[in-house]
């Protein structure tokens, strides 16, 4: 089929195109550092394409946005944290690949919502105590790494979990964004072969659709990067907490 014929084969309405464009625009904003809106992106794409298929459509755009974020925030990454998390994230991804065809989407969303909201409550408690202690427990980083890998493979829903982890690490704004940029770039590259060869959710047809949507990702990233510069470290932490909590509520009742 030709390029145009592939796009036409999706049979998308004007409203659906608008919704998808808005979702990938939010993706660009999210990857620029305005965290907490990833839930909205996942919900919109799942509604248009279906739960599993949407993960493959989203993944190449995530990688493109990751590249922009890595270039922009490269010097702020904390590689010690990345090296600590990556092995357990890979384990989570592999478990996610294994159970991806069988797990109930509803049960998964409810479970993740409870974890996210519980994590937010813990963070609010720590914020009120003005605690500056950074968690040293290896079990904490292991568990958060595993949950991040599992959630990102099942439904690209790792953002809220990683947000909580980075907040507990007391990262400043740019460290938060730079570390997350490199971490998710590595994760998404690891996920790509599984989507191509096992789940078969990434194909020539999905990549053609991605090529039309990439400009919206770039536009969102540029706008988001500008907004991030205007936000103080304190207000950034508050925004992440609020946005993550809202995401957990959406997952719980969505």
From TrEMBL:
- A GO CC term assigned to this protein in UniProt: plasma membrane
Major location (coarse): membrane
KW Ribosomal protein (keyword) present: no
Q: Where in the cell is it found?
A: Cell membrane
Q: Which PANTHER family does the entry mention?
A: MEMBRANE TRANSPORTER PROTEIN YDHB-RELATED (PTHR30269:SF23), TRANSMEMBRANE PROTEIN YFCA (PTHR30269)
Query: Record's family?
Result: Belongs to the 4-toluene sulfonate uptake permease (TSUP) (TC 2.A.102) family.
In its UniProt entry, what is this protein called? Probable membrane transporter protein
């Amino acid at each position: 089929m030709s390029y145009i014929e592939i796009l036409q084969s999706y049979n998308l309405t004007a409203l659906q195109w608008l919704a998808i464009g808005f979702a990938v625009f939010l993706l660009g904003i999210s990857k620029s550092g305005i965290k907490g809106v990833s839930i909205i992106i996942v919900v919109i794409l799942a509604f248009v394409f279906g739960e599993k298929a949407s993960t493959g459509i989203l993944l190449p755009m995530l990688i493109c946005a990751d590249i922009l974020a890595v270039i922009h925030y490269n010097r702020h990454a904390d590689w010690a944290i990345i090296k600590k998390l990556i092995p357990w994230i890979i384990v989570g991804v592999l478990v996610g690949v294994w159970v991806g065809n069988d797990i109930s989407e509803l049960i998964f969303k409810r479970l993740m919502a409870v974890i996210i909201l519980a994590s937010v409550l813990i963070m609010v408690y720590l914020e009120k105590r003005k605690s500056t202690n950074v968690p040293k427990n290896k079990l904490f980083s292991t568990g958060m790494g595993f949950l991040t890998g599992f959630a990102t493979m099942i439904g690209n829903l790792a953002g809220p979990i990683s947000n909580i982890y980075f907040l507990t690490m007391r990262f400043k704004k740019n460290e938060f964004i730079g570390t997350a940029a490199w971490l998710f770039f590595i994760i998404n590259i690891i996920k790509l072969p599984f989507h191509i060869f096992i789940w078969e959710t990434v194909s020539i047809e999905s990549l053609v659709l991605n090529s039309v949507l990439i400009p919206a990702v770039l536009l969102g990233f540029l706008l988001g990067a500008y907004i991030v510069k205007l936000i103080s470290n304190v207000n950034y932490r508050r925004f992440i907490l609020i946005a993550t909590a809202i995401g957990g509520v959406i997952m719980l009742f969505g």
